[in-house]
Automatic annotation (TrEMBL):
Homodimer. Belongs to the class-I pyridoxal-phosphate-dependent aminotransferase family. GO terms for biological process: amino acid metabolic process. The keyword Transferase applies. Residues 29-374 form the Aminotransferase class I/classII large domain. This is Aminotransferase. It comes from Halococcoides cellulosivorans. The lineage of its organism: Archaea, Methanobacteriati, Methanobacteriota, Stenosarchaea group, Halobacteria. It comes from the Archaea. Its EC number is 2.6.1.-. The keyword GTP-binding does not apply.
């Protein structure tokens, strides 16, 4: 007998990013501009708090929703985005934003509902919606500098959707949305009674301007679940900690699944996160400044190569156009010839077909070397 995957799983193919990493793994002297995680370690005081908690024997489960002290610290931290949430019934601490995304879908989306997903976007969005049996409606953004607009929502038919799933600052494009750009999207959501899942995991990583949360716009709090976490800003990907905030009934529904399936998020990571929110603002600023310096180098180097590159203003991604028509062929040939890995834009949906995702979560020296190699490759092979 063979154990067959469920239909849900069969409907979702393997991640386009994973496949690429497997290819890259076989190459020596590789410089990867492919990974979507910080090249820094978590700030030392946060690590120390984790170590200290272990030394004190803090190895039990926490409350299902997370330690009260952490929820209070999250609530206080969100004030900087004009967001106010009650630590007792409007916050659930999760095992990364990944679990928060999963919970939002399982708790708040029914089979047959429609989830409108910004395109291109993070690979897990479509997978999460598909796993719960929802219909996915992609909302193209490539003709609008990768931001959502009322007209693209209308043209895609999002008026009939149940949920709008968006992520700004955006992975893979590095696009951010201003208050002026968010307002018509919020109005559209209110008019058509959409629930919004807003993945704001890169909120702290914006360059030259502050992040604006769609939940802070009038009439949006009651219809929005904001997802955020510690992986990106605090370089804590491996500690697996995130959270969701939203109206009490929605968070209660998410927590109902969480309490049966996860019980509580990792305890050690929760201690690290409390310390991160308490004392690591300077470390975040330092990392952000470094990302910004790298971003400027990447954008100007692509300009010099005459490669059209979207002016990203958030996260740690640049999204240049692929010099070849086939971005997958380009990315594969670049790995083989110059040992530089980028992710083909096709991994992020049809809207990424003409692009490559370049992560600058890589030290400056490697980044410069990788860009030299890209330049050499593009001069040698301008077309396929
Ligand atoms: N959301 C986005 C947009 C991401 O890019 C990622 C990771 O790359 C995640 C969520 C997952 O984050 P976490 O490590 O908190 O599970």
């Amino acid at each position: 007998m063979t154990i067959e995957p469920s239909e849900r799983v069969d409907r979702v193919g393997p991640s386009g990013i994973r496949r690429f990493f497997e290819l890259a793994e076989e190459v020596d002297d590789l410089i990867s501009l492919g990974v979507g995680e910080p090249d820094f370690s978590a700030p030392w005081t946060a690590r120390q708090a984790a170590i200290d908690s272990l030394e004190r024997g803090k190895t039990s489960y926490t409350a299902n929703r997370g330690k009260r002290e952490l929820r209070a610290a999250i609530a206080a931290d969100l004030a900087r985005y004009d967001l106010t949430y009650d630590p007792d019934d409007e916050i659930v601490v999760t095992t990364g934003v990944s679990e928060a995304l999963d919970l939002a879908h399982r708790a708040l989306v029914d089979p047959g509902d429609t989830v409108a997903v910004v395109d291109p976007s993070y690979v897990s969005y479509v997978a999460n919606a598909t796993f719960v049996g929802a219909d996915v409606l992609r909302v193209p953004t490539r003709d609008d500098e990768f931001v959502l607009t009322r007209s693209s929502l209308e043209a895609a038919g999002a008026a009939d959707a149940d949920v709008l799933l968006m992520g700004y600052p955006n992975n893979p494009t590095g696009a951010t949305m201003t208050r002026d750009q968010l307002e018509p999207v919020a109005a559209f959501a209110r008019e058509h009674d959409l629930t919004v899942f807003s993945d704001e995991i890169y909120a702290e990583l914006t360059y030259g301007h502050d992040h604006v949360s769609i939940a802070a716009l009038p009439g949006m709090r009651e219809r929005t679940i904001v997802l955020n976490g510690f992986s990106k800003a605090f370089a804590m990907t491996g500690l697996r900690l995130g959270y969701a905030v939203g109206p009490p009934a929605a968070i209660d529904a998410m927590n109902r699944i969480h309490q049966y399936t996860m019980l509580s998020a990792p305890t050690t990571a929760q201690y690290a996160a409390i310390e991160a929110l308490d004392s690591c603002a300077d470390a975040v600023t330092e990392m952000r400044d470094q990302y910004d310096r790298r971003r400027r180098v990447v954008l100007s180097r692509f300009d010099e190569m005459n490669i059209d590159c979207f002016r990203s203003s958030g996260a740690f991604y640049a999204f240049p156009e692929s010099p070849w028509d086939d971005c997958e062929a380009f990315a594969e040939a670049l790995i083989e010839a110059e040992q530089v890995a980028m992710v083909p834009g096709t991994a992020f949906g049809p809207g990424g077909t003409d692009n490559l995702r370049v992560s600058y979560a890589t030290d400056m020296e490697s980044l410069r070397e990788a860009l030299d190699r890209v330049e050499r490759f593009v001069e040698a092979f301008p077309t396929e």
